[in-house]
Each structure stands twice: as C-alpha cells, then as structure tokens.
User: What shape does this take?
Amino acid sequence: MQGRFKSGASRSVLFGTVRAAVLTFLALAPAACASAGAKEAGAVTAKEMQTIDAEAAAQVEAYFGAPFSEQPKITIAENRAAFNAAFPPEWGMSETECWMVGVGVADFLVVLSPSAWAAEACEHDGSDRAEVKRIVAHELTHTYHGQRNPTRDFTGAESLSWFIEGLATSVAEPEIDGRRARVVAAFNKGTAPAKLEAVWSGDTRYQMAGLLVDYIDQKWGRKKIIELLPAVTQEDALKILGIGEDELLSDFRAWASAGAENK
Ligand SMILES: [Zn+2]
Assistant: This one.
C-alpha cells in the first residue's frame, strides 16, 4: 500500500498460475485477466476492476484539479507470484508481505487481483468494493505524485514518508473524522510525535500522516499541496511551507485537538 520508498513496504504480488494482465489505463479494455486459478466467490471481478480503476483515477484527478501527466501501465496480477513478477528486478521484490496488495509509482500500478486476496493476502477484503477502490485510489495517488516528483518512485525521499503516505491516505479517504479521533486518542495517550519522521511510525501512521496532510490542505490550501509534490526531502517541504518542524507539529496538534472537541 505504499510507494516504492519504504523498503519492502511498497510492493505486492500474486501467486500460483502466474498470469498478469496489463490493462490500458482508463480504457476499459476487455477483462484480460479473468481466467486461471480459483476465484473467490463474491470478490471484485476483473471487469469491475476496470471501472474501479477509472473511478479512482477520476477521484485523484479531482483532488489535484489536473489530469495524470502520463499513462501508467496497469497490471492486475492474478496471483501473488504474478504480482511479485511485475516489479523491476532491481527492486528485489521476489517476495512480498501478505498485506501488500498494490504498488503505485510514476510509471505503473500493480494490484493483486481482489479474487486472490482471500487465499493470498491478509488484512484485506476482496469482496468489499469500497475497500478495493480505496486501495486503488491510494496507489494511484502515489502514481500521480511520482509523475510530479523527480525521483519517480520516491527512492531517496524517505524523510518525506509522512507526506507521501499522508497524501495518499488523504486523497483516497476524504472522510477525516475517523482518523482525527484515532490521532487525538494517540495524542492523549502521550504519543504525540516530537519529530515529523515519527508521524510515519506505529499503529496510527496512516491516520497520523493523513491527518497532517489534511491540516496542511486546510491551512495552506490545495495549491500548496500541489507545490509540495516535487519535494524530495523534509527540508524542501518545510521551505515550501515556510514553517519550522516544531511549529508545524505543535500547530497540527492544536488543530487536531480543537477539531475533535468541536465534534
Ligand atoms: Zn502508500
């Protein structure tokens, strides 16, 4: 569920009778990956995946107010082996964790077919259309971001993991109340991060990073989020925002807590 930058945390694959299907982006091509291997009853089908891809891409473009700058190659891998095989050899992704079901970078999106999630993934429900769409939108946000970032796949951008993952979370899951509640609960337990890097850590890392991007969006506006897309380091990002790390974190904590009280 992540861009390439976190070692191991950004890739996914399918297994078994390896058969990957490359779908043309938004072109709603025939269901090329609809065969081979046992299918999970009720799982999102290959044909539905084409519609979901298009919907998720539209969601990402609506957030940024501009289209993808290039068409990524989209692979819906039938099994974990095909999923793993879809990555560049230099990534060293011959094996992937069970929770990894999608990876997006500038050039491509690879998703493990939801029909394989029951047998070859964990923590995901392949019959839950909303969850599938959320995952595709998350990965496509990484793709959109990668197309506007000089690294293309976030290699070397580790200090901005909080922004990369927070952005994908914020775009894919526009409802912020749930993550605000979890983040404020974490603050109240005394686990407020003292450094930006710590935002992307622990059990609440997606919620914390997502809410921080929500905060930046509300305070500085969408235009500033777009200005942040080419940033590679935390220093770049803070310069673009014109704020120091400590001040950003303390303002964020105050904003998150005040918002929670107003609910
Ligand atoms: Zn991600």
In short: The longest helix spans residues 46-64. The pocket of zinc ion is lined by residues 1-3, 138, 142, 165, 168 (CB under 6 Å). The first strand starts at residue 20 and ends at 23.
